[in-house]
Amino acid sequence: MSPLDIANRMGAMALSLVLGAALPASTARAETSMVSPNGFLVTHRIEVKAAPEQLFAAIGHPERWWSGEHTFSGNAANLSLGMAAGDCFCERWDGGSVEHGRVIYVGRNQAVRVLGAFGPLQGLAVTGVMTFGVAAKEGKTFLQLTYRVSGNADAGLDKLAGPVDAVIGEQARRLAAFVDGATP
């Protein structure tokens, strides 16, 4: 892939992020909060049919549920996510690679936390923390995906909160569909 192709791909990702393409609404609860020019927090909570152990295991396979539309290479099969602190949420393709984030916490069958500014946010020099939470309550399993982003006010994060929320919500719904046996 040439530098021009990569730049065009990044532009397409940015446009997709701004347009906020998302899957149809599911039985999910979404919330965008603490929105300011310096940052925001998005939260998506979805009940899944799978056991907590199955949901936790599925988190480690973004190549199976993350949308290729929201990758640098255009192909989710190029993604990997290690399930131990220090591991990489990375994308590798012929002629390029990107570290989307670094795993900073893993609690087996409870949570995976990744430090990283995903996609076009990398170029804004902001900090992001994405947490995939797994919870069981009253015989039900829940995925709670949160993404907290902060940076300088000149990044205009208040204008990006909605589009980022849509993209993160799409990934949460895709993960829930995958773990429940549907095609994301």
CATH architecture: 2-Layer Sandwich
Helices and strands, in order, run as HEEHHEEEEEEH
Count of distinct strands = 8
Q: What is the typical, i.e. mean, pLDDT?
A: 87
Contiguous runs where pLDDT drops below 50 for at least 5 residues: 1-26
Quick one: CATH superfamily? START domain
> Whole-number radius of gyration?
16 Å
- Neighbour order of strands in the largest sheet: 1-2-8-7-6-5-4-3
What structural class should be given to the helix and strand makeup?
A: alpha+beta
Helix residue percentage: 25-40%
Overall body shape? globular
**Terminus-to-terminus distance:** 27 Å
Number of domains: 1
Number of helices: 4
- From the 3D structure, determine the CATH topology: Alpha-D-Glucose-1,6-Bisphosphate, Chain A, domain 4
Characterize the main sheet. Answer: 8 strands, antiparallel
CATH class: Alpha Beta
Strand content: 35-45%
Task: Please give the structural blueprint.
Layout: H1 3-19, E1 28-36, E2 39-48, H2 52-59, H3 62-65, E3 79-81, E4 88-93, E5 96-107, E6 111-115, E7 127-137, E8 140-150, H4 157-179
Antiparallel strand pairs: 1-2, 2-8, 3-4, 4-5, 5-6, 6-7, 7-8
Helix pairs in contact: 2-4
